[in-house]
Automatic annotation (TrEMBL):
Residues 25-303 form the Protein kinase domain. This is Protein kinase domain-containing protein. Pfam families: PK_Tyr_Ser-Thr. GO terms for molecular function: ATP binding; protein serine/threonine kinase activity; transmembrane receptor protein tyrosine kinase activity. Signal peptide: none annotated. Keywords: ATP-binding, Kinase, Nucleotide-binding, Serine/threonine-protein kinase, Transferase. InterPro entries: ANXUR1/2-like, J_dom_sf, Kinase-like_dom_sf, Prot_kinase_dom, Ser-Thr/Tyr_kinase_cat_dom, Ser/Thr_kinase_AS. GO terms for cellular component: plasma membrane; plasmodesma. It comes from Lactuca saligna (Willowleaf lettuce).
Amino acid sequence: MSSFMIEYQKLQIPLEYIQHATHNFGDSHFLAEGGFGKVYRAELIQSNGSTMAAAVKRLNPSNNQGDADFWREIMLLSKYKHENIILLLGFCYQSKERILVYEYAPKNSLNNHLHDPNFTWSQRLKICLGAARGLEYLHNPRGGQQRVLHRDIKSANILLDENWNAKIADFGFSKYGPANQEHSILFSDPKGTLGYCDPVFIETSFYKKESDVYSFGVVLFEVLCSRLCVDYKYDDMRRSLPAFVKNSSKEKIRDAVIDVNLLRQMEENSFDTFITLAHKCLEREQKERPSMELIVKKIETALKYQEQKEVVFSDNVKSTSSSTAYAVKLEKPDLLPQKEEVGRNQLEENLDDEIKKWSSGKEGNLRALLSTLHEILEPESCWEPVSSTDMIDSDAVRKSYKKAIYLIRPNKLTQREASTREKYICSKVIEMLKVGLVSFKSEERAIKEKQISEERNQLRILGEQHDDDIKRWSKGRERCLGDLLSNLQYILGPESGWEPVSLSGLWSTADTHEEYHKSLILTDPDTLNNRGASRKEKYIYGEVRKILKNGWDSAVAEDK
């Protein structure tokens, strides 16, 4: 520990100095208390003679946060610096005291503002965006640093400075993971806070960065629904916010949960983007959850929609306030360029040729229709064209299609008081999109069938090449799990990272239990995908996994 103390000597603050700055941890400086201990406000005197407010976290010696977690937080916050991560000013480890000194966040934590009726939708979006940027930095650090898994993301750990900027705090449970890799997996005892924990982590004890994403999704719903994730005033499903929103439609959440005053502030696209993102964060399958990088982009989009609405409203208020003191109805921007109202027959004559020309050669090509849809809808529609690179991905095509249908559906146009011309054009566009979707599904089905056929052919070739080797390697050993494990290196090769064990002739569950489960992790399909294994490796590992399973079943039966 002495070498550590020397390395971080510049961060050490004498206990006497902290006691003086907090009036000996007096009640007048007390801020909050948690399982870790108490937090006090302190006035630190800087070298230039000015004072600076700070938050002093005095850890309770009897709490569950041991020395390892204390030093880990110091090391982490001294290396990982970001405008949306709380700044560590110093620490004290003296006379059995463990104290951390942070920058002061005068607006307290996010959970204290969720019920505030004056907490606007724009404020909420900006705070979520700041917290997302901080967490994205931890997951994807620059300069070759290790990835950080926070492991206790919650609204109480998102602090707010005097300008309402979000600061992620409390890194006592955090762990490092490999940098610059798509996946980081940590085997750990359950950590975190009730209601925010990823259920997959609770079940498997494997923590991934996607587990942080789940916790952040819970925070997003807290912000949207103006409540904490666990509310004991309810005795039904509503007690758990994640359980409730997973079983509720967007419409139900909007109409029955969100505060009316908050709902009135929301731009519709902003709400839709935000709630869709929050739902994706709570997906059961971890691979279906978005990355923090994507989360940042989506919240930026939701904020952009909201700010556009507020700018339009502000401009209208300014233009009318100078001419009249009476309230006026603010006109909504048109979805499409406005022309004089005309009859349906004249619309067909004027626009059918234009629409056909626009869609010429694209009726059966959904990608082409979607990527150029903005040309007919015009920028006023808020339609964001999808890049051709994104259009390669089938999921991107489906999402873009759903967005298009939502944007131009009849009841949506009616709500926006669309003109007859707008409604007519959108009805024709919907017809073409549906035709394109049918063709797209047929095309996608043909591609998948071709891929399956190629996969089967590859497996057949691999089987012809390697089945004899695998059978020869395992011959006579299927019932001797010890021999299987100790010789596994010969078929997998040293590059697999497998460490052979000396268990020849021993096949009792007590002797081989640990090594068998180690082999299951090594040969797990997800593990192979994470390692970028070749098709050949995946095939051989799959066959080896079957043999090991047979050997294990035989060992268990023999033990009995």
